[in-house]
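User: Can you fold this complex?
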Amino acid sequence: MNIDRLVNASAIETCTVDFLRIGPLTRLEQINLDGPVVLGAHCVARRSTIGRYTVAGDYCRFTDCDVGAFCSFGDNVLLNAGTHPKDWFSTSLFACNPTFWDWASEYRDAKRDGYPSFQWRKSNKVGNDVWIGANVVILSGVDIGDGAIIGANSVVTCNVMPYSVVAGAPARPRSKRFDDQTISALIDSHWWTLPVEKLLSLPFGDVRATLRALNSLQPDDDVFPTHVGSVD
Ligand SMILES: CC(C)(COP(=O)(O)OP(=O)(O)OC[C@H]1O[C@@H](n2cnc3c(N)ncnc32)[C@H](O)[C@@H]1OP(=O)(O)O)[C@@H](O)C(=O)NCCC(=O)NCCS
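Assistant: Here's the predicted assembly.
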């Protein structure tokens, strides 16, 4: 489902359109979805892809992101936080964003000799089954591997390995969710591509039993397009 523009103008009610559910005052522009997605109140999502069964809390912001399936974001997560020029004469928008102040006539009418172009942000790729705690900032260009966990209040400045737990500002590896063999098996299983009715029959609480059950699935079982979210 492609959404060109959608705003929930209600300050109170949640709005459901097909398989998208958005909270009060949330707005979307140029969003691509492939299954049910929930965004809380006051979220902004622009020019992004969001995978099925991903849920975000209130006040989350996605811009130029590719987010996988089955992700969980706490409140106030800023993905793909933009940058300002560090080594220019000024970091201000007056110097690096030619349109931002155009509404002010003195700026609009001022003569300019050329205008250097500046790249605000690259993109963010977030894998599948990623859990991001509340109040997290993810800097532009950073990739988050499948199954990773980002602790509350983290600032993520570099790529996060699959199934690792990182936290802090800057976010540093704290632990891994499973041993390396289990992590490889989970990544190789691409379980996030399976139809949800197959997933719901798995014994989620026991990762080894789940992997055995996944291995016993028939090769001709229907699969969704794979969302590749691993870090190189
Ligand atoms: C990341 C998280 C899942 C880790 O949980 P955990 O595995 O029980 O963590 P541990 O207790 O083993 O912590 C490991 C280390 O990381 C530190 N740590 C954990 N979370 C941290 C955080 N958010 N920021 C800074 N350090 C953190 C711990 O202090 C500990 O440090 P130590 O080894 O020096 O004692 C949890 O701390 C967290 O942040 N959860 C998110 C909660 C949230 O935002 N929920 C919103 C709804 S989605």
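Residues 180-189 form the longest helix (10 residues). The chain has five helices and 19 strands.
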